[in-house]
Design brief:
Elements (H helix, E strand, L loop, with lengths): L7 H8 L3 H14 L3 H15 L12 H13 L1 H7 L1 H10 L16 H20 L7 H17 L6 H20 L13 H19 L11 H7 L5 H14 L15 E10 L11 E9 L2 E5 L8 E4 L5 E4 L10 E5 L5 E5 L3 H15 L8 E2 L4 E2 L2 E2 L13 E2 L14 H14 L1 H16 L16 H32 L12 H17 L1
Antiparallel strand pairs: 1-2, 1-7, 2-3, 3-4, 5-6, 6-7, 8-11, 9-10
Helix pairs in contact: 1-2, 2-4, 2-14, 3-4, 3-8, 7-10, 8-9, 9-10, 15-16
Length: 523
């Protein structure tokens, strides 16, 4: 439906008293049918177009914000578990003193020691967050990519808006609240004790400010002791780490060619590669090359800054897997598998670096439509695959691909139940639907100042919005009749004194009274 403000989903958000009421069933329904990304992209793009100041982008409690919050809670719960839970558990169990407000300092506590304890916790949590980009669920990455694109197109003169559009959710509405109230995000079984809660509050404030990338961060704190503490983190390396993290989680493999997004450097460094063998015959030797990965391509050249000798588009990376040591008698090797069974064999400098490259290459390519499901864990040498001994070089893989990362967490959602909830909301807010319909009529015939009672509604196209409202009201009416018929049929089959409704059952007596009132009303 165009414009988006004329869609049934947007209208539901307009008539509900709280946006959260509408967001919960909408998000669950769209997740169930695999349409959450286009839905959020559409309502987010519409909101961005209405935003005048880039500093206020996605800062309100709009339908877009609430839908993204709900999506992160559902799809990102496992992500929080693997990222934050180990450190949160340690903070709750060890009880290190971290109070840095001189007024609240307990007897025997040392302010400098407390600051150091807090600094270490903040540093560790900041590091695990900014290193966790490869674990961020695909659905969240796709949403962040869409937010980034919309914001960059709307505010082309602001180079930072592509970051603030994403950080306003991942830091301000996801990580910071999870640190502040871990029990609400299933990170702890109950609310932490007062001392731990205070420690988590101080950590959450600092992480939120670090993630915001605001230019004058000390001014963000009302308390002077927080501004003093933040000086520990007032270094460019922290801002760079945040930007690299935001770049990674908002770099989707599902790009269109019209994207305005510039290539974002994700990782680079020297490694050793084996010649891919463009010629069928000839020596395939090993050479040291400078590798460079962006969200667009994976390249290598002789030295940093040289022209690329080879470029592999991200969409051509079909799998990234480890290579068994027996292949070339070399450790820390992995393979980048491309179309037509072409394989690039690479040796990293150590096992940690090999894992980092595998993780990040897998992350940026995990949405590719032609990703392989099987691969060969060993190389093809001397006329056969070392792993399965197959002689044809185009033999399909013999081992399932690891995938490397959990792309998404499957959710148990009942689509019919969520649809019923949406119907119930529309039914309960019928007076508002009718008032919105009146507002459409008023806007269509009157071009002057908007009447105050209609000013709360966002109506970009009165004619299209009226059409949608008419269909909603008619649909709700039809469903209400079917619900009433179902209740009548059930009432006829219900026996008082049965095992289901024994004599003296007050709920059954209430049910009879309600049915009598409905029947009388119908007459």
């Amino acid at each position: 439906v165009q414009p988006v403000s004329a869609s049934a989903a947007h209208i539901l958000g307009e008539v509900c008293r709280e946006k959260q009421e509408a967001a919960i069933p909408l998000v669950r329904l769209f997740l169930h049918y695999g349409r959450i990304v286009p839905f959020i992209s559409a309502i987010a793009n519409a909101e961005v177009k209405r935003t005048q100041d880039p500093n206020t982008i996605f800062r309100g409690n709009s339908l877009t914000s609430k839908c993204i919050d709900e999506t992160m809670k559902l799809a990102g719960m496992h992500y929080l578990q693997v990222t934050l839970k180990p450190i949160i558990d340690e903070i709750c169990q060890v009880h290190k003193p971290c109070e840095i407000d001189p007024v609240k300092l307990k007897d025997g506590e040392n302010l400098e020691n407390n600051r150091e304890n807090l600094r270490q916790y903040v540093d560790r949590i900041f590091t695990v967050i900014t290193k966790s980009g490869v674990s961020c669920p695909t659905v969240m990455c796709d949403i962040f990519f869409s937010l980034r694109e919309s914001a960059a197109k709307r505010f082309q003169g602001d180079p930072d808006v592509r970051y603030t559009a994403v950080s306003s959710f991942i830091f301000l509405r996801f990580f910071a609240p999870a640190i502040l109230s871990p029990n609400l995000f299933q990170l702890t079984p109950h609310h932490p004790d007062p001392q731990t809660s205070r420690t988590l509050t101080l950590i959450s404030k600092t992480i939120q400010t670090l993630g915001s990338l605001s230019k004058s961060k000390s001014a963000n704190f009302k308390e002077s002791y927080m501004a003093t503490f933040y000086d520990y983190f007032n270094e460019q390396k922290y801002a760079d780490a945040v930007k690299n993290f935001l770049d990674l989680i908002s770099s989707s493999g599902r790009r269109d060619h019209k994207s305005i997004e510039q290539p974002i450097l994700l990782k680079e460094g020297f490694m050793i590669k084996r010649a891919q063998g463009r010629k069928r015959f000839g020596m395939k030797n090993f050479k040291k090359r400078w590798f460079r990965l962006t969200n667009h391509e994976f390249t290598y050249q002789k030295s940093k800054g040289d022209h690329p000798l080879c470029s592999i588009p991200i969409e051509n990376i079909l799998a990234v897997e480890r290579l068994e040591e027996e292949s070339f008698k070399m450790k820390n090797m992995f393979q980048v598998i491309q179309p037509e069974r072409r394989v690039l064999y690479i040796q990293a400098n150590n096992c940690v670096e090999a894992k980092d490259w595998i993780d990040i290459l897998t992350k940026v390519s995990q949405c590719n439509k032609k990703r392989l499901t099987v691969y060969h864990p060993s190389a093809y040498l001397n006329g056969h695959w070392l792993c399965c001994k197959a002689t044809a070089d185009n033999t399909p893989g013999c081992t399932p691909c690891t995938g490397g990362l959990p792309a998404n967490i499957q959710l148990d959602i009942d689509g019919d139940r969520e649809t019923e909830r949406i119907y119930s909301l529309f039914n309960s807010y019928m007076p508002k639907l009718e008032k919105m319909q009146e507002a459409c009529g008023s806007k269509s015939v009157y071009d002057g100042p908007e009447e105050e009672e209609y000013s709360t509604f966002i109506i970009d196209d009165p004619k299209e919005t009226y059409k949608t409202l008419k269909l909603i009201i008619e649909g709700v009416g039809t469903l209400e009749q079917e619900h009433a018929q179902y209740r009548r049929d059930k009432f006829k089959k219900t026996k008082y004194g049965s095992q289901e409704h024994p004599i003296g059952d007050k709920s059954f007596q209430t049910y009879i009274r309600q049915q009598s009132e409905i029947s009388a009303h119908s007459i």
